[in-house]
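Hi Y.,

Following your request, here is the sequence exactly as I used it, all 156 residues.
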Amino acid sequence: MKKISVIRMLFAGLLSLGALPVRANETRPANNAAAGPAKVLAAQTAAWNSCDIDGFMAGYWHSKDLRFASGDKVTYGWEKTLQGYKARYADCAKMGQLSFSDIETRTLSPTAVQVFGHWSLARAGDHPHGLFTLLFQKFGDDWRIISDHTSAANHE
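Below is the corresponding structure, written out as tokens. Let me know if you'd prefer a different format.
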């Protein structure tokens, strides 16, 4: 009789601490929030690899408040960011084939997700690569990048 009540107390204690795993058919909010940005990154990769900078830019917040940092320069605004991409990647050869890897997501709230990762371009003459940190915000049903900090590895 005492063994059963001890087991019940331990089980109740574990439940109150949240130590038991969530059932397999339940989803956690963090997983739902991270799914939107993952879709945006997949769409951006497909657009870039189709030589479509405008399609790639669809993943960004179309606002004058978009923040894009790269190197020692910060650009504000969707239009200025688009102009920068088009100037730097004027043709398909310069764009190369984009891939993202080592993606880590951190759900900040139901409408904000931070994404870390590596980017790389496969081009005929070189293979630039680096890191990025993106801040996504949910607008209605759509997720958009509101801040992008991208760095390139040194080519030595």
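The chain has one domain: 29-152.

Thanks again,
Q.
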